[in-house]
User: What shape does this take?
Amino acid sequence: MSLIVQKFGGSSVANKERVFNVANRIIETYKNNNSVVVVVSAQGDTTDDLIEKAAEITSNPSKREMDMLLSTGEQISISLLAMAIHELGYPAISLTGWQVGMNTDSNYSNARIHKINADRIKKELEHKNIVIVAGFQGINKYEDITTLGRGGSDTSAVALAAALHADLCEIYTDVDGVYTADPRIVKGAKKLDVISFDEMLELASMGANVLHNRSVEVAKKYNVNLCVRSSLNKNEGTVVKEVNDMEKMLVKGVAHDLDVARIALCDIEDKPGVAFKVFSLLAKAKINVDIILQSIGRENKKDISFTVSKSNMEKAVEILNQNKDVIGFDNIKTNGEVAKVSIVGAGMVNNPGVASMMFEALSEAGINIHMISTSEIKVSVLVNAKNAQKAVQAICEKFNLAD
Assistant: This one.
């Protein structure tokens, strides 16, 4: 007997037909002599609808109350899915995040999982129940409901698989697996049979929306046997795992991220400690910074440019302006009409010409590059947002990532 954790996204349970489709997929797994734990997201656009309801009341809701509100979306999904499984004649029980012991910190709206007390799940599995768990949510030390942020249900599923030492964690979505590029943008994008944790983590962090990056971090840390599959068909998916020194594709995939804003601090004093002042202030405010570029300097002055998410741009500018005299800059420039385009591949490590091929593709497409960031398995560039899809297409053609 195997223990399998399955996760179904909001589109997979968006209506009655899809709820019963998911119920049948789960039952099929259960009938093959498996113990099954299922993690479910809120139905369709439920979360967006709840956010709109909050906006009708206030333009500045407390994060604690938003977590209380948004967590109800998953409760609707798990109860309806449990009812559908009952209707088909099989045993199931729905449980919220706090009922399964999903203990988190108190960072409302973007909580991190501290530990999972899986006793309740184990007891229900011993009673031969299919356990349906609300994704995206947990409980903190004050016994308040917390949510895990965007993509949190993926993280819930992988964390449960790790805590339960599951034999397999299947992430079901509306695509067949992980592709070399978004198949909605690039016609003929190729589905990958296997991708490494590191490559998947980079793609997820760079804007690929198949798996959330925090879920991949947990999978890598605990070596969770992970597979991405379609909830709408029975095609083989993409296995995410540690990949040894087998022959690797030069570039595994291209991702783009439109949730990017560029901030430039102009004419900062060129002296030690200035960069520390800037980025320590942003770190204290829990603002993640991605690409960073510092100019060579002139007349004892320099510029520092960096990227943040669009939602953090105003907050970052406000903090920096409040500390203008401490940092010592002349003015701030911002640009919210940019996009990050990235190539990822473990095969890039021993091939120094990869970056130049990417830049050549963009040059041939007439696309200007604003900023560049590299690592052993990734190259990211900042371009105008209007050119993002064109850039992805050009890069795919250059590296033969689409049929």
In short: The first strand starts at residue 2 and ends at 8.
